[in-house]
Amino acid sequence: MAFSITHQIGALAGTPISVTEPSTSSGESTASVTASAVRKSPAAGLTCKIQNPEGKETGMLTPPMSPCRSPVLGATRPDLSVACQAYAAEVEAAPVLEHEIRGHVEKINGVPVFVMMPLDSVTMNHTVNRKKAMNASLQALKSAGVEGIMMDVWWGLVERDAPGAYNWGGYNELLEMAKKQGLKVQAVMSFHQCGGNVGDSCTIPLPNWVVEEVNNDPDLAYTDQWGKRNYEYLSLGVDTLPVLKGRTPVQCYADFIRAFRDNFKHLLGDTIVEIQVGMGPAGELRYPSYPEGDGTWSFPGIGAFQCFDKYMLSSLKAYCESEGKPEWGSTGPTDAGHYNNWPEDTPFFRKEGGGWNSTYGEFFLGWYSQMLLDHGERILSSTKAIYENEGVKISVKVSGIHWHYGTRSHAPELTAGYYNTRFRDGYRPIAQMLARHGAIFNFTCIEMHDHEQPQDAQCSPEGLVRQVALATQKAGVPLAGENALPRYDDYAHEQILQASALNIKGNTEGKQMCAFTYLRMNPQLFQADNWRRFVSFVKKMKEGKNTHKCREEVEREAEHFVHVTTPLVQEAAVALMH
Predict the structure, then answer these.
(1) Burial class for 216, CB neighbours closer than 10 Å (0-12, 13-18, 19+)
(2) For residue 550, which of 42, 26, 11 has the smallest C-alpha distance?
(3) Is 284 a catalytic residue?
(4) Is residue 213 within 8 Å of 172, Cβ to Cβ?
(5) Are 154 and 194 in contact (CB under 8 A)?
(6) Closest by Cα among 502, 506, 572 to 544
(7) Which of 36, 189, 283, 477 gives 472 a disulfide partner, CB atoms 3.0 to 4.6 angstroms apart?
């Protein structure tokens, strides 16, 4: 059977590819990936493991360099626009190869990799943004062995104009594109505003009718002690109050999630495999304690408590009275410094005699963190009921707040709502809450090394990831990961590989992370050197820590993928840049 370049891509990626003739007036390619992934059986007896004197296997700290770097890759022009212009001629002149596919359905022994889509994948006009680039990009991701994609489903787009009026335009088409390429989808129910967080490349406000209600009652927004409002996400103090045209925010979230289920029911469990429920700023379960977008906060400041809107203060007052402490119910801490202070600058967070470790501090922090847990509980309860028996997983994202982690008070975590100190595990209660609903704990900053961070701020992303891994292990909750910032280097990839292996005390069953989501699909990812490293990273993740293959074999296989997919990747890169 004669195979074209598109078929070569699929064959080398372990995925048969069928090409469908274009049927749209736009003339865009509708090449699609179908069928299950396959791969050839590995050579018997090929191992690359070292045994210590006790007979135990020990893994290499860093992968060996492959001895077979492709000379074609080494000569790849950095000017992708020139390469793209030659793409059509290259495909036309490519020799037709005879290729026989043998093997079996691929089983991922390691960690499946998903890739986050651009934030503006769907436009304000309810269409797929840069459709040609999106199609080429999805095909390139599939060819690299990526399991699927993660996409934001924006509340502010879908239900923008009127309560209960849902416009799924753009998402219908994008999900069908993913399905045609054989990619799974993690759909994020994004109930926050886009714009104002690290990496936000566009602005998508909350629905118009929600903004109208907030303008009429600014206390619907989170508020700090100086009266500054944060409009990124509605205050959890109004979760159960009918402040949105007769509905409560939790009801609005549930109705949106239900409408998504009903509209895409035919894709659930097959294409759509996970629903991640947004629960705060940036879609994370936390308070907006470190708003960077407007210059209020900068790294590594401690942030500020967000409990000073009238609804949160009313809840605090009621709680204090019920606990026999009415004198504590009039306000939150006012001696906790400003957004950009450090712990030792403040009476509340300093290590010696700090208010965080006093009777009052423990009382307040217990209430503040429990309000966040209750918020998650309410939304998860409705989400679980809606997706019962639908064949999809439910996940919640938790922020990786690693700065000042080495201090006693862990101030930035406390202001965000995570009651984690040197003397208290703040992540186990979150994991236990997720366990009650069978949800996945999705955590960020997996790619970071301690020594890359400012040591005077006592940052420890590695220590934080270990703590979270232990907390989820004890609670029996699956752990998934994300990189917090874009990284394309082998050093970050290796850190992700190490972290996803969950080599922690007590992990006697050899469990690994259940998934990893890579931030993010963009032109930089498809640059030649970045793409080569990414393809190798995906293969190593899929092989897992118990692989029978050595790193050199995985590197060689990755070289083949990179070489054959080069034209497609160049097309995606150029299309995305324009």
Answers:
(1) exposed
(2) 42
(3) yes
(4) no
(5) yes
(6) 502
(7) 477
Which two three-digit tokens encode residue 344? 């030792």
Identify residue 521 by its one-letter amino acid code: M
- Within 8 A by CB and 6+ apart from 168, the residues are 126, 158, 260, 263, 264
- Of 232, 462, 482, 543, the active-site residue reads 482
Contact predicate 562/168, CB 8 Å = no
Length of the chain: 578
Three-state secondary structure readout of 60-94:
CCCCCCCCCCCHHHHCCCCCHHHHHHCHHHHHHHC
Q: Which two tokens stand for residue 301?
A: 């400041």
d(CA 143, CA 150): 17
How many CB atoms neighbour CB 315 within 10 A? 20
Per-residue pLDDT of 402-417, as tens digits, reads: 999 999 999 999 999 9
Radius of gyration over every alpha carbon of the chain, rounded to an integer in angstroms: 25
Q: What is the DSSP string of 228-241?
A: -EEEEEE-GGGTTS
Q: How far apart are CA 83 and CA 80, in angstroms?
A: 5
Any idea which residue has 């927004």 for tokens?
221
Tell me which DSSP letter residue 150 carries: E
Residue 351 bridge partners (DSSP) = none
- The chain-wide mean pLDDT, for the chain, equals 83
Residue 508 banded pLDDT, cuts 50, 70, 90: confident
Q: Say how far apart CA 503 and CA 470 lie, in whole Å.
A: 10
Given the residues 147, 274, 284, 543, the one annotated as active site: 284
What is the DSSP track for 160-176?
A: -SSTT----TTHHHHHH
Known catalytic residue: 377? Answer: no
User: In this structure, what are the phi and psi dihedrals at residue 69, rounded to the nearest 5 degrees?
Assistant: -60, 135
Q: Which residues contact 103 (CB under 8 A, 6 or more apart)?
A: 14, 38, 39, 40, 41
Q: Which range has the worst mean pLDDT, 107-111, 406-410, 537-541, 570-574?
A: 570-574
45-58 as b/e: b if 16+ CB within 10 A: eeebeeeeeeeeee
